[in-house]
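Quick question, first post here. What does this chain look like in 3D?
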Amino acid sequence: MKYILLAVLVIGGLFMFMQRGGVNEVMSYEELKNKLDSKANFVLVDVRTKEEYDAGHIPTAILLPYDEVNTKAAIVLPDKEKEIVVYCRSGRRSAIAKKALLELGYTNVADFGGINRWQGALEK
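> Answer (accepted):
Ran it through. Tokens below.
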């Protein structure tokens, strides 16, 4: 009986993991800093609100609030194969935005997570 219960728990856990789309890996601070320093060909996207963006954002970032990704991504991000890095305040909205972009057909989307991980100066 305990083996059946264990099997049910394992299968249930795997099912929940698959439904979430796996673990959302986040880009390291060093990797993002290196991309910015080398002027790599990518788009950095702040998915917070306009007010949060105006209060301070990572240099070169463009604004595309996460709740507008489905309606405005094609305009703001016309190249679906270009590398895109998204971030928000804590990582929750950036994970949602990453998933939405992938579902829209973008092929190279990374998540930096929260701006609180950024160690450099912010632009206003």
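The chain has a mean pLDDT of 88.
Strands lie at 42-46, 62-63, 83-88, 109-114.
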